[in-house]
Amino acid sequence: HILDTPLKQIKMINNINKILYCNNEGVKHISNGRYSSAKKAFRAALVCLKQCEDQQHQQEVVVDENSPCHQQSCPLILETYPIPSFRSKSRAEDDSQQYMFRNALTVQMNRDVDTDYNYLYSKIGAGLTAIVVFNLSLASHCNAERYNWSAADLKKVVKMYSKAWEALYNDSWLLQHHQIHRDTMVLALLNNMGGIFQKLANYQKARHCFKSLRKVFSSKTAGVQALRPDAHYGMMMNALFVDQRNTACAA
Asked: How confident is the model at residue 67 (pLDDT cuts 50, 70, 90)?
């Protein structure tokens, strides 16, 4: 079955375009320190993602992965967007031992690709959800970093990062078409969750995150090789700091 009427196709197209718009507006808000506005935009994108999922289920869209439609070129363009830190100097000094990866992701429609909207959501839904939830998590993390480090706030951020991880686990689109960006998200999730667990003094979970991070680094995938030297250094210093703390506690 497909979205067999123009009205249904238009609804799907509008929802996907709104998802991209809200996500990219949210990224702009984060970069300007407007975290509440950013979170509002990302949540609006998630509402549209849910509407796309409901529409797909109602239409019983069945995807044949061998069909030409499913194997068409990637219809979306991803770009990383560096987010500045708005911490005060004293806060920056307090947290100087911890590196936070703060690159969000923007998504644009590739107008050079002939897109079949009947199958688009089924193809990109999980990956797009992972991107939006990751950006939402990053906005919440930046907010906690700027204003406070309360345990309740940080636990909420970890929960959101975990949801982004789950969505990424169900993704095949990013894996096939955007390996570098997917690898970057994996590295960011492991590093940032590990850093939060460290702040919460949950060193066992922090150690697990950074152990997994080192395994990803050792794989030398395209995303790992594309990582900026300062990001690579910061993540490895986080892992080393947790190891040193564990050694000191054991002693």
From this structure: very low
Separation in Å, CA 136 to CA 22, 25, 111, 228: 11, 12, 26, 23
Radius of gyration of the chain (CA): 19
Write out the two tokens for 9: 């196709």
Q: Provide the pLDDT confidence category of residue 56 given band limits of 50, 70 and 90.
A: confident
Residue 18 dihedral angles phi and psi, to the nearest 5°: -70, -35
Q: Which residues of 108-123 are buried (b: 16+ CB within 10 A; e: fewer)?
A: eeeeeeebbbbbbbbb
Please report the pLDDT score of residue 244 as a whole number. 62
For residues 116 and 237, the model is more confident at 237
d(CA 35, CA 29): 6
Q: What is the pLDDT of residues 212-247, one digit of tens each?
A: 999 999 998 888 999 999 999 999 898 887 666 655
Long-range contact set of residues 233-236: C-beta below 8 Å, sequence gap at least 24: 233/99, 234/99, 234/101, 234/191, 235/99, 235/101, 235/187, 235/191
Calculate the alpha carbon distances from 129 to 15, 143, 151, 222 in Å. 13, 21, 26, 22
Tens of pLDDT, residue by residue over 24-39, are 999 999 999 999 999 9
Handedness of CA 50, 54, 59, 65 (dihedral sign): positive
